[in-house]
Amino acid sequence: MTIATPIRRKVSTAALSRLSWPVPAGVATLAVNGYPMAYVERGAGETVVLVHGSLSDYRYWTPQMSPPPPGFRFVAVSLRHFHPEPWNGKGEDFSVQGHAEDVVAFIEHLEVGPVHLVAWSRGGSVALGATKSRPDLVRKLVLMEPVISSLLPQPEAGRPDLALARLKAAAVYYKNGDIEGGLQYFVDDLNGAGAWQRRTQEQRQLARDNAWTLVRQVTDSDAVTPDDLREMRIPVLLVGGEKGPQYLAQTMDAAQQYLPSASRVTISNAGHRMNLDNPVEFNRVVVDFLSK
């Protein structure tokens, strides 16, 4: 992916001096809450910040960055402890709320006023947390099958939380030294048997590079409640994949009830990773929404 030369900004040299991992060519860093957040940017115009989900990073948005639509500047971030940091899963500073606070600080440092936020999966919860904290920084919000556990009915007594059970089962593979097996289990259980093998080598490597961020999500908690959603007044677009997981479709059903300004679209012939499965339709839908 060809990346335009990043804009030079003042950053904390103290924070950057702690950077102990290599940053790929064309990738910039910005000191955010004491952490060097990596990002890439393309295009010019209204700023759109892209927030990835599980097992991914700024590279997840390649189909949207190559190139971005005219009139928009796309900025794809890597959240704390995601690639390019080679994280080993240790430390206490990994949470949805912490990532939301980082996104807020990142937007503030951009110094461009309110931005559009486009967020996928777990990143949807992060983006909602950022919007709850600083609604003045967000113009419009696109949520792609967001993971918001608080919107779903609690499991009946004795029945497991299936999303949490999936993470815990993957963690058992990790504990036994089989990280590849844990990744395959998680991807196949979420998307259907054979999903891991159907991914390209590049897509599987993306997950490997962020492997330890997956099992740390066992302790995740939502950054917003249904009442928080009722208070949001910015335009929101909910985007689903025609073949996406059923529990995430149910999450969006609930979100649509709580978010007073939400509209909803479904990307045809696409699963949970709708921006990768059908980028032409996804890009058109998002640009139409952001341009209104």
Features of this protein?
single chain; 292 residues; alpha/beta; eight-stranded mixed sheet; 13 helices; 8 strands
Q: Secondary-structure map with pairings?
A:
Blueprint: H1 13-16, E1 28-32, E2 35-43, E3 46-51, H2 62-65, E4 72-77, H3 96-110, E5 115-120, H4 122-133, E6 138-144, H5 162-175, H6 179-191, H7 195-198, H8 201-209, H9 211-215, H10 226-231, E7 236-241, H11 246-258, E8 262-267, H12 274-277, H13 279-291
Parallel strand pairs: 3-4, 3-5, 5-6, 6-7, 7-8
Antiparallel strand pairs: 1-2, 2-4
Report on this structure.
It is a single chain. This protein is of the alpha/beta class. It has 13 helices and eight strands. Strands 1-2-4-3-5-6-7-8 form an eight-stranded mixed beta sheet, with helices on both faces. The radius of gyration is 18 Å and the shape is globular. The N terminus is likely disordered.
Largest sheet: 8 strands, mixed
Structural class based on helices, strands and sheet pairing: alpha/beta
- Total beta-strand segments: 8
What gyration radius follows from the Cα positions, in whole Å?
A: 18 Å
Low-confidence stretches: 1-17
Arithmetic mean of pLDDT: 91
Question: Counting H and I runs of at least 4 residues, what is the number of helices?
Answer: 13
Distance between the termini: 29 Å
Into which percentage range does the β-strand content fall?
15-25%
In short:
The chain is α/β, with parallel strands linked by helices.
